[in-house]
Amino acid sequence: MSRLAILSALWLGLCLLHPANAVHAVIGTPVAQAEMPSVEGAKIKILREAEINVLVFFRPNQERSLGALKELAQCQKNFAGKSVQWTAIASASASADSAAAPIRAAGFAAPVLLDNDDALYGSLGLALHPVVVIVNRERKLAAFEPFRAVNYCEVVSAHLRHLLREIGDEELRQILDPPKATQGGEDQVAKSYRAFAEVLLKSGNLEKALDNVRKSIDKDPKVASAQALLGQILAAQGNCAEAIQAFDRALVLDAASAAATEGLERCKTPR
Amino acid sequence: MQFPSRACLILLVSTCLAAPTAQAQTAAKQLAQPAAKGSPASAAKAAGAVPAAKKTASGALAPLPVKPAPKSSHAPFEAGDCKICHQSADPKNPGPVTKTGPALCLDCHEEFSAILKRPHTHAAAKSNCTNCHNPHNAAFPKLMLNETRQLCVTCHEDIKKLIDKARVPHKALTTGAQCTNCHNPHGSAVARLLVQLPFDLCVSCHNRDDATDANGKKLQNLKSWLDNNKVWHAPVAAKDCSACHQPHGSEHFRLLTEDYPPEFYAPYNAQSYALCFSCHQEKAFSTAKTGTLTSFRNGTTNLHFVHLQQIGRGRTCRACHEVHASKQDHHIREGVPYGSGGWVLKLNYKKVDGGGSCDKTCHAEKTYSNKPPVKAG
C-alpha cells in the first residue's frame, strides 16, 4: 500500500466518522489501520493484534512528555503478559534519534513510530502532547487521556483494566473520581475512644474504661461494638441491669454482635 | 526509619511519666532544657537521631511542662497509666513501649489501619507516628510536634524553597489547616497525598464571588463559571488544575506554572506562551501552512498563525479563548472586554461542520473551511 493510499484511507476513515472541528475524535470512532516508519526504519502497523492498543503521542524534548513516559513506563509493568500493545508515536518532523532518546531514557518499552505530516495526530483531532489514545479490540477509540500532573498512571491503568474487564464501571468511576481522603471526624474519634476503653478493660481499669467508652458513645452512639463494650464494662462492675440495656442497644445496631450476645447470656444466667 | 524505634525508645524509657503529677512535671521541665551531655536527648543524638533533631526545638517526645498549658494531650497519658503503652506502669521507670512503629498506635486508632493501606501513603506515617506526633502531649493541636506547615517543611525542603521564593503566594498555605487543607498526611487515593483531585480541592474554596488573591485582587468564582460554561478545557475536565497552576506559590500571576501573556495584543514570542506550549505544540502556531496541526485553518492556511503572527498586533490566546471553560466549542469566548468602560466586543463565532466563522467582531465576517479540497475530475 502506498503512503498516499494509507494517508487517504486514514483521512477518509477518520474525517467521515468524527466532526472535523471536535477537540478530539469522539469515543467510539474507528481508528483505521495504517503503517508507519519506525525510528529503526522498519514499517510497522500502528494497531497490532491485541485486546488493547495504547498509542502514546509524545514530543521529544518536551518536559511533560518525558514525565509522562517515565510514569507510563512504570505503568506498563502492571500489564506485563496481558494483551496490551504499547506504541509510542512522535511527529516525523523529529529526527529518529531525537524521538528514540526519550523512550530509552524513560525505559518505556514500545516501538517508536514517526507520524508523517502528523497525519494520524491530525486525523484523531489531537491538539496537545503528551496524550494516550486507547484503542479497543474492535479498533475503536476507547479512551483519550491527555497528560495529568496527578494520578496519570492510575487513570490510564484504570481504563486498561476496565477494557480487560478486570474492574467494573463503578471501580473505574471511583478511580477517575476518587473519594475524599477523610481523616478524623466524630466517628473515627469515637472508634479511638472505644478501642482505648477496650485496652483499659483488659488492664482491669474499669472506671477509666467506662469513662472512655462513654466518650465514644457520646461522639457516635451508633457504633455497635462500643455499646457492646459498655455492656461488658458494666457487667464487669457487676451492674448487669444497665449492661443488659447496653447489650440490647448493640444488638439493635448489629444483630450479629457476638460480644453483645455472649454478654447478654452471661448477665441473664443466674450465678 | 531508624530513629523512632531506637531513639524514641531511649527517650520514652527515660522520660515517660505516667500522669501530669508533680514528679512528672519536674522531670518534664528538666527535659525541656537544652540537652546536656550524657542526657537522654544527647544520647539520642549520638544514636544518629537526625530526624528527631529536625522535629522539634527540644528534639524530644517527652511530656511538656505544665506551663504554658499544652494544647493537646493524649488520652492514655491523661489516664496516667504508663502500662497502656509501656511495659511497666511505674511512672519513674515505664520501660520500653510494648510495640514498635505505628502498631502500638493502631491498637486504639484502628481507622488508621485502613488509611495506611490507601494507594498513596506518607512514608513518615508508615514508619512511625512519632515522626509528627508527641505521644504524650503537645503545644499544638492533634499532638503535633510543631505548627503544621513548619512541621511539613522540616522534611519537604523543596516545598519550603518554593514557598519562600514565590512572588505570588497562595493563601491556602497560610490559612485554616494550612498544608492539610489539601493534603492528608497519612494516606489518600490521590497522588501527592491530596485529599481529593486538585479540581475538587480548588473549587471547594474558589466558589465565592468575594474571594481575593493574596494581593487583594478579586478572583473568579470558578464554580459558578464552570457551572455556566459547559465546554471545559482538558485539564479542567481531567480535574487537574495543577497542570497549569502551582498551588504552593509561583513566580507567575495567578499561580501559573509558566509564562502566559497577560496582554490582548503582543508580538509573537514562543517563550511568553510557555504555559500553553507545555501541552500544545508550538509549531501549530508558527507554521503558516498545515493540513493537520490545527483545525483552525482555511484549507491549509493556518489561522492560528495568521492571528498570532501579525506584526505589531499579534493576538494572544486570551483574545479568542477562555482558559477554563466556555459556552462554545474550542474554548472560544463569547466576547472580549473593549476599552475601559466595560464594554464587551462580541466575537460572534459560529461553528459549522468542517469550519466556522466570526462576524462583526475585530473584523468583518470571515469564514473558514478545514475540509480537504475536493479534487476536480
Describe this structure in words.
- The complex is a heterodimer of chains A (271) and B (377).
- Chain A has helices at 3-17, 63-77, 96-106, 119-123, 152-163, 169-176, 186-202, 206-219, 224-236, 240-253, 258-268, and strands at residues 35-37, 43-45, 52-57, 84-91, 112-115, 131-135, 141-146.
- In chain A, a hairpin with a 5-residue loop joins strand 6 and strand 7 (141-146).
- Chain A is built from 11 helices and 7 strands.
- In chain A, the strands form 2 sheets. Chain A has a 5-stranded mixed beta sheet with strand order 5-4-3-6-7. A two-stranded antiparallel sheet of chain A has the order 1-2.
- Chain A is of the alpha/beta class.
- The termini of chain A are far apart.
- Chain B is an alpha+beta fold.
- Chain B has 3 domains: 22-33 and 51-146, no CATH class; 171-253, no CATH class; 258-369, no CATH class.
- In chain B, strand 6 (297-298) and strand 7 (301-302) form a beta hairpin.
- In chain B, helix 1 (3-15) runs antiparallel to helix 3 (40-46).
- Chain B is elongated, with a radius of gyration of 29 Å.
- Chains A and B meet through helix 4 and helix 7 of A and helix 5 and strand 4 of B.
Topology (SSEs and partners):
The complex is a heterodimer of chains A (271) and B (377).
Chain A: H1 3-17, E1 35-37, E2 43-45, E3 52-57, H2 63-77, E4 84-91, H3 96-106, E5 112-115, H4 119-123, E6 131-135, E7 141-146, H5 152-163, H6 169-176, H7 186-202, H8 206-219, H9 224-236, H10 240-253, H11 258-268
Parallel strand pairs in A: 3-4, 4-5
Antiparallel strand pairs in A: 1-2, 3-6, 6-7
Helix pairs in contact in A: 2-3, 2-5, 5-6, 7-8, 7-9, 8-9, 9-10, 9-11, 10-11
Chain B: H1 3-15, H2 22-32, H3 40-46, H4 50-55, E1 72-73, H5 75-79, H6 103-106, H7 111-115, E2 120-121, H8 123-127, E3 137-138, H9 148-155, H10 157-165, E4 187-188, H11 198-205, H12 222-228, E5 231-232, H13 234-237, H14 274-277, H15 283-286, E6 297-298, E7 301-302, H16 303-308, H17 317-320, E8 325-326, E9 335-338, E10 343-346, E11 349-352, E12 355-358, E13 366-369
Antiparallel strand pairs in B: 1-3, 2-4, 5-8, 6-7, 9-10, 11-12, 12-13
Helix pairs in contact in B: 1-3
